[in-house]
Amino acid sequence: MGLSKTIWATPSEYLAKEEPENPVLFFSPATLQATARRFLDGFPGLVTYAVKSNPDEMVIANLVAAGIRGFDVASIFEIDLIRRVAPGAAMHYNNPVRSRGEIAEAVELGVRSFSVDSRSELAKLVELVPAGSEISVRFKLPVAGAAYDFGAKFGATSELATELLAMVAQAGLVPSLTFHPGTQCTDPMAWDAYLRAAAEIAHRADVRIARLNVGGGFPAHRLIDVAPEVETIFDLIDRVTGEAFGEDRPALICEPGRGLVAESFTLATRVRAIRDDAHVFLNDGVYGGLAELPLIGIIDRTEVRDAHGQRRDGAPRGRIVFGPTCDSVDRLPGELALPGDMEEGDFVVFHGMGAYSTATVTRFNGFGVLDIATVMRLTD
Length: 380
Ligand SMILES: *Cc1c(COP(=O)(O)O)cnc(C)c1O
Known about the structure:
This protein is of the alpha/beta class.
């Protein structure tokens, strides 16, 4: 990934001047810091950032500048990154499966908070982490609401979580609970169900939990007609935690990835060809910055700019859109409504592209070079 030293005013200024052949992600530090402040002001507890959603050092540095003091890390690489870019920040190692070597290295690097969802991994932690460490038992519920099911890979059933929580307390470690309602979770009632289940698990285990981590999953603005209000979710979390736990109310943590970072990046792709006036071929696709679209649905917050950066406003026409590789899977889901006057060489610009874009891009078929440019603001 190339990083330009210049700070541009807007993406369209860059597109007109540079006419880039590679896809470009435009990063607005101002947008990222404003989003971080929204979480810091509104969430009734500690706001941490899930590094995997976008591990760019500029992202981490701007989150620290905005006041983020904790990070959800899942690998030694991410722990090293946070130690370097955000020294002194809290690190929560919330990947419930780790090798013994990884646990030992994390302890060495100062990590004192771990999640767990099984007896075998709890036994490893009890053996290897120092006294005073926090162990958060991760549980799952069969709850709908998110874009895809996070519970398919991680999370103990309520019964097992009750058993694990009691074991953590018995081992003399700091007992906590954690869950993840699933990414892009647009239904606030998912948190309602999880919070009440957490109180029930703590009650049945007869353990007063130190902290409750309510996960990531906070939705980003993907569809024009669905602008999520995270404040509604924050208020619900605050109220339901009080109702469910009463006097045993734990300290709260959240660990958003997408909700913090998505809005601060805009992706500009270029039209390589419009084949016989029908299908559109872009220079980026599902093996690159658009990897998530087939998994969690389309982003319809798009605009088309001509080679001079001017916005096209022809009547929309539904098009099948392909990415650049020779793999037929490399296609955006459904059809995209794109201006009828769109031409080869135009730019198709996707907003809200900061999460799971740079992080998951591949070099498949020789494509996947994404440039990053810093801008003052993302819209004209
Ligand atoms: C990925 C992940 C997150 C972030 O999820 P988002 O949906 O991006 O907010 C938070 N916590 C854990 C444990 C994760 O694995």
